[in-house]
Amino acid sequence: MRRTVYNEDHEAFRETIRAFIEAEVVPVYDQWLEAGQAPREFYYKLGELGVFGIEVPEEFGGAGEESFKFQAVVSEECARAGVSFGGSSVHTGLCLPYVTAYATDEQKKRWLPGFVSGVTMFAIAMTEPGTGSDLAGMKTSAKLSEDGTHYVLNGAKTFITGGVHADRVIVCARTAPATAEDRRAGISLFVVDTKSPGYTVGRKLDKLGLKTSDTAELAFSDVEVPVEDLLGEEGKGFSYLGQNLPQERLAIAMGAYAQAAAAIRFAQAYVQDRTVFGKTVASFQNTKFELAACKAEVDAAEAVVDRALDAHDRHELSAADAASAKLFCTEVAARVIDRCLQLHGGYGYMNEYPIARLYADNRVNRIYGGTSEVMKSIIAKSMGL
After folding, report:
1. What secondary structure does DSSP assign to 51-66, as a single string?
2. Is residue 1 part of a domain?
3. What is the pLDDT of residues 266-304, one digit of tens each?
4. Which contacts (CB < 8 Å, 24+ apart) does range 19-24 have?
5. Whole-model pTM over 0.70
6. How far is C-alpha 349 from the chain's CA centre?
7. Is there a domain that residue 142 lies in?
8. Catalytic residue positions?
9. Of 235, 169, 228, 162, whose CA–CA distance to 199 is shortest?
10. pLDDT tens digits for 204-254?
């Protein structure tokens, strides 16, 4: 079926991104995998291409687009080529909505031009050791100084994507203790300069997949954060996080669908080329049935993603809608990628093949942004259960 979710502008952008990936990423991607991260200089190229500024208002150097579909195109094209843009997806997909929604005009003038160019890379620090999905259980604190000029930040965060290269990190911290009535109370957001004394980037985490995405532990020891870098209102951080979660989960669903579609593409090319017992693997009935079943599942995931993208652009994507899309698409991708790897035989287990990297990269989709179990809880609550 013909997709109607994209228009001519999206498709022209797709051609640009595809050509950029072929020229700037594919030839050096093995080097990125070996290094465990994309080089910092690569983000300047993304800035020059305009990828970081698509949804940034024109007065701050961006294109002023409101549609999230351009980011969807980037996800699809990266998956198609079996590559990634490192930790930059957090920069645009997770961090930008907070800045555009809650920053003052003065803050936007300070931060967004660098954001667009890639000179100032953003990350967001929510998760803490021992808390996982329980964000209300965070212990990182930010206490206002006696003279009221700055906050003193103390604590630690983990699993921070983009944490190694980040120049500014949106840190979630407690400015007041939780109350018996509301564990979510007292959380605020700060845009922290990573060059601040007392700010430490710990070890770069060695992950199962997403090898080119720099993921780190962060620590804060009496880090002084100017009051001018408080994002939004003090104490409203948890509500801010909740408002952006549907987009984050849509992005994960979208990425999972794109990975599954790419897995079919890789498997089909492999089985049509690979010969066993004097016949191509594609000629066996089992191969045809397996790929046909995979395609049917991916077609369904595509429909879910496209509907969610349209709803998001209309500002109608609810938390339950996003949870449902994430749950369905990530589970589909897990099944499809596993079956496509199986069709590769032993070669599917080799990291030199894109299907092996997809298999490892895909696994986290059912964990971050809220686990599948959390998604089920959200959906069940929306059903009145």
Report:
1. GGGTTS-GGGTS----
2. no
3. 999 999 999 999 999 999 999 999 999 999 999 999 999
4. 20/49, 21/77, 21/78, 21/81, 21/83, 22/81
5. yes
6. 25
7. yes
8. 248
9. 169
10. 888 999 999 889 999 999 999 999 999 999 999 999 988 889 999 999 999
